[in-house]
Amino acid sequence: MTKLSIGVFLAMLALSMAAAWADEAPASAAAPGMATTAAPAAAPQAAAAAPAAAAPAPMTQPALIGADKISAGDTAWMLTSTALVLMMCVPGLALFYGGMVRKKNVLATLMQSFACTCVVTIPWWVVGYSLAFTPGNGFIGGLSRALFTGMTFMHGDTDSRLTVSHLAPTIPETVYAMFQMTFAIITPALIAGSFADRMKFSAMLLFLAAWSLLVYSPIAHMVWEPTGWLSAAGVLDYAGGTVVHINAGIAGLASCLVLGKRLGYPREAMPPHNLTLTLIGASLLWVGWFGFNAGSATAADGRAGMAMLATQMATAAAALGWMFTEWVTKGKPSVLGIASGAVAGLVAITPASGFVAPTAAVIIGIAAGVVCYFAATSLKHALGYDDSLDAFGVHCVGGIVGALLTGVFVSKEISGVDGSLLTQFKGVATTLIYGFVVSFAILKIIDMTIGLRVTEDQEREGLDISLHGESIE
Amino acid sequence: MKLVTAIIKPFKLDDVRKAIGDVGVQGVTVTEVRGFGRQRGHTEIYRGAEYAVEFVPKTKIEIAVDDPLVDQVIEAIHKSAQTGKVGDGKIFVFELRQVVRIRTGERGPGAI
Q1: How far is B51 from chain A (nearest CA, A)?
Q2: Alpha-carbon distance A269 to nearest alpha carbon in chain B (angstroms)
Q3: pLDDT, tens digit, 9 for 90 and up, residues A186-212
Q4: Tens of pLDDT, residues A282-303
Q5: The whole model's pTM is what?
Q6: Which residues of A touch B45 (CB under 8 A)?
Q7: Using H for helix, E for strand and C for coil, what is the string for chain A?
């Protein structure tokens, strides 16, 4: 009886996915397969939901459809999510990082996030979106959406038409491309946590733009677009544990290795100048992350609700995990500690949200809080690299914890797919190796051409004055 | 005339302000300063990195007073800034050669 009801539930899940199977894009190969088998049975229901819809054959590329076929509910939620995710970067991440640096570098650090938001928008429009989210080979997408060519909304008095992505067929493609753009923006902005306080601004602009095309788009394609080989291999990444966090974190490690340590590190004290900013930033990240994770459902549905709930559980558990670990080992529960723990939890639940139940989310959160605490404190000091604001220690390590535990805790009841630790490991290892090698190469090339690091005098004086000609009192 | 300079605990500033006002002080200059004395510093920990903070935040007040008032002012600061714990601060008294009120050009004790 139980088996039967689970079977019925799964069938219904499959039916609902037939109409919006691109929900399952991160869930990889299993999803298109299920949608295909469920399609004939889905026809009546889909027709009831959207009168004009014929039996929906799974789309494999962006397509032009009637505007009446999109879902107003899904579209409303995705417009909201997009704004939430952009808020994570500016001002969320800008404040989170800005509060942690010394006073002489605060404007430069805020500028890094803000300028990243601007500078990544352009390559995303030129080819980034197309390379990531149109069909291609296993490693990279095609050029059919370069300059957003063909992405359209055509007004008609009775028959407006618009394009939709095959990854989100119930919302306008403009919204999907914009939603994904906010991911493409915040990912390189996260790397700044590793190279803060010492990179030239010109070099940073070049690095982030190049990185978004040469690293972000290919990894996003491999993991999320159904023709990507990791997607086809069954790697699970609901909202970007590998694509965003491991990817940004490992690029951070590459950048702090290529750049070298900050002057005076670790001899001189470099305490955060204003943890109020950091706590506000962490709070904005937390709120925005509901758009990041629950928005990755690309629909206003039950799975989005599951993703949102899992996000809250894991974040709270990780913040407490970090806080209590620090309390026990160092004697005091710090503000920076609880904020860092919350971000570690948000990172770790990113790949898992939408795949795991709330209880699993709590376990993932605790694991992330404790593991990231030791990565950002003991591991960093033991190995001696200067990951200024712990982009590697929190995002890469937290991302790995989350990505691997997704394989352990994935719930077929919630997601309709299976996962395995081994498959997850494949995704993690690929991102680590590809991300590190290509990031390292881009940084080396910039270093050999225009130079990567500010002069010693500029670094001593502070980047606010030396790079931007401004300062705060 | 004397210049009374006191280094006090920052949270005692309001008490001191009231006490010196009560004995008739007309003006005071307040500065946020850092330094160390017998209190020494403390340790701060950020993501596992421990920093010894050797200079403790204090508040410096400077008051120009005419000679008859000096002992009362010293007494007022002493009483109001005291907690009895290490780090309460110090009072320094200097000879003051001249005072000029910029608005009128008035000089001497009348300018205080």
Answers
A1: 6
A2: 6
A3: 999 999 999 999 999 999 999 999 999
A4: 999 999 999 999 999 999 999 9
A5: 0.83
A6: 326, 330-332, 334
A7: CHHHHHHHHHHHHHHHHHHCHHHHHHHCCHHHHHHHHHHHHHHHHHHHHCCCCCCCCCCCCCEEEEHHHCCHHHHHHHHHHHHHHHHHHHHHHHHHHHHHCCHHHHHHHHHHHHHHHHHHHHHHHHHHHHHHHCCECCCCECCCCHHHCCCCEECCCCCCEEEEECCECCCCHHHHHHHHHHHHHHHHHHHHHHHCCCECHHHHHHHHHHHHHHHHHHHHHHHHCCCCHHHHCCCCCCCCHHHHHHHHHHHHHHHHHHHCCCCCCCCCCCCCCCHHHHHHHHHHHHHHHHHHHHHHHCCCCHHHHHHHHHHHHHHHHHHHHHHHHHHHHHCCCCHHHHHHHHHHHHHHHHHHCCCCCHHHHHHHHHHHHHHHHHHHHHHHHHHCCCCCCCHHHHHHHHHHHHHHHHHHHCCHHHHCCCCCHHHHHHHHHHHHHHHHHHHHHHHHHHHHHCCCECCHHHHHHCHHHHHHCCCCC
